[in-house]
Amino acid sequence: MKNSFVYKYLSLRNSESLGRFLTTMAALIAIVSTITIVVFISLKGLSTFTTNGVSLKEFLFSTNWLPDRPLAEGGPQVGVLAFIIGSLVVSMLAVLVSAPLSIACAVFIVEIAPYWGQRFLQPAIELLAGIPSVVYGYIGLSVLVPFIRDNIGGLGFSVLAGFLVLSVMILPTIVSMLIDSLKSLPRDYKEASLALGSTRWQAIRLVLIPAARSGLVTGIVLGLARAFGEALAVQMVIGNTRVMPTSILDPVITLTSAITMDMGNTPMGSLWNNALWSMGLLLLIMSFIFILIVRYGVRRGGISR
Amino acid sequence: MRKKMALLTVTVLCLFALAVLAGCGGQGTQQGEGEMSGNITAVGSTAVQPLMEQAANDFMSINPNVRIVVQGGGSGTGLTQVAQGAADIGNSDIFAEEKSGIDAAQLTDHQICVVGMACVANPALSVDNLTRQQVIDIFTGKTTNWQSVGGPDQKIVLVNRPKASGTRATFKKYVLGGAEEAAGIEEDSSGTVRKIVKDTPGAIGYLALAYLDDSVKVINLDGVEPTNEMIISGKYPLWAYMHSYTKGQPSGATEAFLQYMSSDNVQKSIIPEMGYIPETEMKIVRDINGNIKSK
Amino acid sequence: MNARLADKIATLTFWVGALIVILILGSMIAYLLYHGGKYISWDFLTKPAQAIRAGGGIGPQIFNSFYLLFLSMLITVPIGVLGGIYLAEYAGNNKLTEAIRLCIETLNSLPSIVVGLFGLLVFVNMTGWGYSLISGALALTVINLPLMVRFTEEAIRGVPASLREASLNLGANHWQTILRVVLPSAFPGLVSGAIITSGRVFGEAAALLFTAGMSSPALDFSQWNIFHPASPLNPFRPAETLAVHIWKVNTEGLIPDLRRVADGSAAVLILVVLGFNMAARWLGSKIHRRMTGT
């Protein structure tokens, strides 16, 4: 039965249905793999709450991370608020630095100097995306951290070092979204504006950037998502201290660095390990939220892709 | 173009089929007539990994039909995998009983070697000895300035390993006496800890003796220098066994390999070369509760 | 302040912004090459790594990186291209398309550490493959797929409608048109998309730590039976890639010449990524010229 089904499809040369079948299958694979990932991570991540009976409120809103506290002293407690705050602070500051620079780069490539932009700047930015995060982390640790310690203050391992490294890492994400959306704007916009006597800067500021607004926001949200999920580079420069930061020179800890540090050393199935999976699930939920913001909050207005 | 596409699809399908087939083939050790053969998977502690990798390479050159795969991944992963039967050997830098969530009863412990550790501080500091109580006060956050322990007026920066790390557990158990550490910088690797202690003024941390070099200052504990001799004779407390766990008793190639690990080939050459202490040289035995007996 | 002055200042600002980015990249590459470039030698590139002694190379790691990339592209490219075709050509404006796009975007923004954890759970543990090339390749596919789909869709949308209409008017059906007309003219875009994707994956470490593993058993390069455990081509052996090696050496390395290996590897890695990007541009423009020339 199955064989004849496959045979029927394969034997139809140039068949329209073969094409439809193959491409639909490929698209379905994307759905299936996403669902599988979500289901598996959720199953593991939820066991903190189902098997170990940790309350969601305690997990999300407590800063007490004592997964190895002996029963005599009150038993283990897993509160990840410090990690969540750390992740949010570092990634948002990274976007604050990266966004203006990205806008400058994208506008430069599309409007100011397309020749230089497309010859040098665009490949350079693509290259930034290709540099492994380990290398970013190592350069951050060798150059940025001592620089901050000697010239600005604190230990060097800090929120500052973390978001500076991240801001370079997410630059390509934001720039490429912006370039796409600037390029997709009708030429008439700019020409009409220039014909009305405005300067290039006025055209960019008053016409092009507002028109490319949705691309800009999309890029920023995706950049935020990338910054939120970055692990190895951040871990090397933020100092990983499990307390709330009070200044940008304080060390912090993020969800991702907590996961990479402890995952291998905790046995699977223990509360500690489950709590790390719950943090992974939290990352997944966050990136899902970012996507939903982009899809339903941003693209509804403006020019969508 | 369509043919190519079909070809590609078929190739990929084949690859998957092969994958499934070979996956079913799986691991397992068999002993042939005379010649030793089999596959061994060892997973776990990154501290044991380089040692075992080196030993595995030597072992495989003697027994060409044995394949040994040595994998890092951490002690937790190693213990989980060996308990589940996914690996033949689970390496750990801590007793299996000390990890919650592991059924230690079904695992057999093979102690390979001993790793000594030492407190290290930034080389600019003038302190080279601390009492155990001073170390406890420093790491629990009671002492925050080097001045109170005879050093310069410099804030103390704690550099810890992550909580799940075996090195930290050992330090907490044998030096801090189980006291909860104050928050400090945490790094999950010896290399990074060394770099931070070297670069950060006022930093103190702890490292395996193998990682010590001129870039950091070694601190004596209660006047005892952290050396192999002091550990072997039981005078210096900060050390841990490196364990290789098997599920039940090992057999076949796994047994032979573990025997090789405790033979002179490994104990007298690779282990000292790495800066670890051979298990065979220890004059004392310490059980999981820290009770010391002479051997 | 008049508009003309503001325009001048703005233009200057944009140039400065662009220069800052070039400067950051330039100094990073210079830093890596300055510190690592002097260690690159034929020996370094071909010799196996050492666990505890000095003098190790990165030969197997380089091979592993390329082979892993090849395996993952073998899975990614067909699925990604077909998926891209679906979205560009077949997808209607309906719930299914919405769902597919949502899924692809989710995959795209998935933290690579989450992909690694998933790979550990499913490819490594559940299938029983253990830490292996195939597990790593599948994890990389998860990371690659959304990019490949996106590049394909863009390349196909860039094909002029007139070409497509001409083919349809000549009596070809939709699928024939896609295969014979649309795909060939989108080909340069596909090639550069695939190469850029490759470059990104080449540097991936977080997802591979938990899937392809951190060990590199001795390889026997004369053994070409892909099921032999020592064969470099065996997809079920664990494989440490260059990016993972850099991570491992930097963090837990016990070898005395640690800086040499770490810096040298980073320089090699950056050169390879640089090469990928240049190849993508060169190949893309070359194919484009040839196709528009004939």
Model description:
The complex is a heterotrimer of chains A (305), B (295) and C (294). With 305 residues, chain A is mostly helical. Chain A is globular and about 80 Å long. Chain A is built from 13 helices and two strands, in the order αααββαααααααααα. Chain A folds into two domains: 1-45; 78-296, MetI-like (MetI-like fold, Orthogonal Bundle), CATH 1.10.3720. Chain A has helices at residues 2-11, 16-50, 56-61, 81-112, 114-130, 133-151, 159-183, 187-195, 200-211, 213-229, 232-237, 255-262, 271-298, and strands spanning 65-66, 77-78. The longest helix of chain A has 35 residues, at 16-50. In chain A, 53% of the residues are buried. Chain B is an alpha/beta fold and 295 residues long. Helices cover 34% and strands 24% of the residues of chain B. Chain B has helices at residues 2-25, 49-62, 75-84, 132-139, 166-174, 190-199, 228-232, 252-261, 264-274, and strands at 38-44, 66-73, 89-92, 107-121, 129-130, 157-160, 185-186, 203-208, 217-221, 239-247, 277-278, 284-286, 292-294. In chain B, strands 1, 2, 3, 4, 5, 6, 7, 8, 9, 10 and 11 form an eleven-stranded mixed sheet that branches. Chain C is mostly helical. Chain C has eleven helices and no strands. In chain C, α5 packs across α6 (133-157). The longest helix of chain C has 36 residues, at 258-293. The termini of chain C are far apart. At the A-C interface, α2, α4, α5, α6 and α9 of A face α1, α3, α4, α5 and α6 of C.
Percent of residues in helices of chain C = over 70%
CATH class of the largest domain in chain B: Alpha Beta
The oligomeric status of these chains comes to heterotrimer
Order of helices and strands of chain C: HHHHHHHHHHH
Q: How many helices of chain B does DSSP assign? A: 9
Basic shape of chain B: elongated
CATH overall fold name of the largest domain in chain B: D-Maltodextrin-Binding Protein, domain 2
The number of helical segments of chain C is 11
| Average pLDDT, all residues of chain C | 83
Measured on Cα atoms, how large is the radius of gyration of chain B?
A: 23 Å
The succession of helices and strands of chain B, N to C, reads: HEHEHEEEHEHEHEEHEHHEEE
Q: Globular, elongated, flat, extended or rod-shaped: what is the shape of chain C?
A: globular
Flag low-confidence runs of chain B.
13-33
- At the fold tier of CATH, the topology name of the largest domain in chain C is MetI-like fold
User: Considering DSSP H and I runs of 4 or more, what fraction of the residues of chain B is helical?
Assistant: 25-40%
- Classification by helices and strands of chain B: alpha/beta
Biggest β-sheet strands, sense, barrel of chain C: none
Biggest chain-to-chain interface with counts: A-C, 85 and 90 residues
Question: What's the total number of strands of chain B?
Answer: 13
Counting DSSP E segments of at least 2 residues, the number of strands of chain C comes to 0
Number of domains of chain B: 2
